[in-house]
Design brief:
By secondary structure, this protein is of the alpha/beta class. The chain has helices at residues 23-26, 53-57, 67-75, 101-117, 131-143, 171-181, 200-208, 224-236, 268-280, 301-316; strands spanning 4-5, 28-29, 43-50, 87-95, 120-126, 148-153, 187-193, 212-215, 240-246, 284-290. The protein contains 10 helices and 10 strands. Strands 1, 2, 3, 4, 5, 6, 7, 8, 9 and 10 form a 10-stranded mixed beta sheet that branches. Strand 6, helix 6 and strand 7 (187-193) form a beta-alpha-beta unit.
Length: 317
């Protein structure tokens, strides 16, 4: 696998306890080419997606290809509360060679299918939001005809046409096209949409595809019961949930290190409350965090936010 790299264990650092009190002590860096999974063990599989070619094509700020390692460096310092018999694996990183985004997405898709077939729970860290197309395709290949619901925490619909090639703004339109070809339902819920981040054609596209969405003015703790109700209704109608979190959906007060920052985004508390609902449903099959761009981060703030989200999910599932 030329477009794949194993994580160097030295990347994971933190306090030393000799009791696995911290995640850098718990994590095991493995090669997907050689590692033999134990399906009987509960396994969290962390996978990197080091690609920002889609961001560049979408006229965003490049640098997200360095996102996975920035998140790892932050996450390693976090405390470990996993059970002793739960495996936490760092399964390396999918990389983008020769600016070939489409091949990178295919590689991600195949890797996700592999991880799911080994009874792991994948957490993918990126990388541009084009991560979503490859991630979804891998889940789809694993699940077959099951109904998959997509929950996207994002300021953007990412429903742009990919007539000039795939990019970070096209993944959910690509999924919708695939669903139409397969005569399958397109189940997509987007939380945190902003009118100042989507043109009217994108809103029209969302409506034509029957996309469920909440605008950011109603995506906050003041409307928590309303948000929870919408989530539960969406989850009830599908068999499995794929969740994707675009860090640029957060206010830049929390996430300055992203490809498309804005002070008008949402806050972490409402996202955590939503994740509780999603995880408690027992339908969550996989999750990713996109658009981590360390080039523009301030004091590692965005990396810490991303690491906190990973930490929350891996201990909650």
């Amino acid at each position: 696998m030329l477009d794949y790299k194993i994580t160097v264990k030295d990347l994971w650092t933190g306090r030393k306890s000799d009791q696995e009190l911290y995640l850098h002590e718990k994590v095991k860096c493995v090669s997907l080419v050689e590692f033999e999974f134990n399906k009987d063990l509960k396994t969290i599989a962390l996978l990197g997606y080091a690609c920002d070619k889609g961001v560049q094509r979408n006229q965003g700020r490049i640098g997200a290809e360095h996102g996975p390692d920035a998140i790892r460096k932050s996450l390693g310092k976090f405390p470990n509360h996993l059970a002793n018999d739960t495996q936490f694996l760092d399964c390396g990183t999918i990389t983008c060679l020769n600016a070939d985004l489409e091949s990178t997405q295919t590689n991600l898709s195949n890797t996700i299918e592999l991880l799911l077939s080994q009874n792991t729970f994948p957490i993918v860290i990126g990388g541009g939001h084009d991560i979503a197309y490859g991630h979804y395709k891998g889940i789809k290949k694993h699940l077959g005809n099951k109904k998959i619901g997509i929950i996207n925490f994002d300021a953007h619909f990412d429903l742009r046409q990919n007539t000039s090639g795939n990019n970070s703004g096209t993944p959910f339109n690509q999924i919708a096209q695939d669903c139409e070809t397969e005569n399958a339902a397109f189940n997509y819920l987007c939380l945190g949409i902003r009118k100042d981040a989507n043109d009217k054609v994108l809103f029209e596209t969302a409506d034509s595809l029957n996309v469920k969405y909440l605008e950011t003015e109603h995506f906050n703790m003041h409307y928590l019961e309303h948000v929870q109700l919408i989530l539960m209704q969406f989850i009830e109608d599908v068999d499995y949930i794929y969740t994707t979190i675009d860090l640029d959906g957060f206010s830049s007060a929390y996430a300055p290190g992203v490809s498309a920052p804005s002070p008008m985004g949402f806050s972490p508390d409402i996202v955590l409350e939503c994740l509780k609902v999603i995880i408690d449903s027992k339908k969550l099959i996989s999750i990713d965090i996109a658009e981590m761009n360390p080039t523009y981060d301030i004091d590692g703030q965005t990396a810490k936010l991303a690491a906190s989200l990973v930490h929350f999910v891996m201990h909650k599932v």
